Fold this protein.
Amino acid sequence: MDTLAQLRAGLLAGATRLDLAAGLTQFPREILDLADTLEVLNLSGNALSSLPDDFHRLRRLRVLFCDRNQFTELPACLGQCPALSMVGFKGNRIETVPGAALPPLLRWLILTDNRVTELPTELGERPFLQKLMLAGNRLTQLPPSLRNCHRLELTRLAANRLSELPDWLLTLPSLTWLAYAGNPLETEADATALDATPTIAWSQLSLGEKLGEGASGVIHRAEWQHAKAVAIKLYKGEMTSDGSPLHEMNACITAGLHPNLIRVEGRIVEHPQHQAGLVMELVDPSYRNLAGLPSLESCSRDVYADDTRFNADVALRIARGIASVGEHLHRQGITHGDLYGHNILLNEHGDCLLGDFGAASFHATDDSFESRALQRIEVRAFGVLLGELLERIDSGLSDHTHERLEDLQRRCCQGDVLARPGFSEIVLELGGF
């Protein structure tokens, strides 16, 4: 019996989560019978265009996913849901976002890949807003009221029509992860990088096992000219929550060489399906992810395994490596936009590689207010990471050194954006430990 049949037969009473993809064109009223228990509702992959006016009867509902449906407007009924904090409508046809559609406890809003041209003033009146995903829309400006969202940490604005980033956005005290590639405002200082990068014909590659898959592409092991083991990333060409995969490829190439980056050997040409791709060095299998992706509960913060512990030497090696690569990227006019533990590969010695340029953006390399602010926003991401490392050091750190590192962490995360140190200063300071 499928899930819809179980629901209609009353067999799901007491459920706290419901995932229902059954080609729905109308909302099944039986879902409202779960009002006393339902907390997570996933209606992605249907053909819905509306929700019932009494949807707010789901008084315990915290999370709603309605990705890949046919909504043209964010349903106003959501604003009456007393517990709803996460709202996801990725890949619909949404043009209008009424202020009344924003629930009072809104913490995480996903409107990626829609047709939104304007956001309501009420968005800035949601004090718990922490994560805002708006890539792939038609926005020309942001509501000034967003300046009041002092808890906002992650914002995705890529692939819109923004001609500038407002000063108030760049001085939000908690903003940490920002992506804005593919807007008219972006300064792609090395937009010719694709042309300057060596090309590798698809016929020179022998495809091997699949190593992993992300939102932007699939990574395979491959043999290059039957002589060298490499990794290849084939881009999907679809809009992701971070932005366009082709912008990711450009940033990855422009980043250049650094010991804490995965080396790009060249870009793939002559693919039979004209798929874009990169050939990269094959990372040694001893490397693993530092952390796991944020969860629904942690929202913008990584999830670490309970047994993740380090000695001081390993933790400091990680911190120095990531600070160094941050300094390198900023000198190239690139912000990574997703500087997180889950995007860091490391081995047991603390050797580490920063990957995943899906949220990377370009900025001018001059010493302007905007460039400094964009770089210091990313410094806050490093401060969060440093704090996570410090929490997991179990040996080898004196009280005095711990206090000094905690002070550095606090300065990286302070609310006054321009008062934070730059990566050059951080690299020098970490070199003294």
Remarks:
- The mean pLDDT is 94.
- The first helix runs from residue 3 to 8.
- The two ends are 62 Å apart (CA to CA).
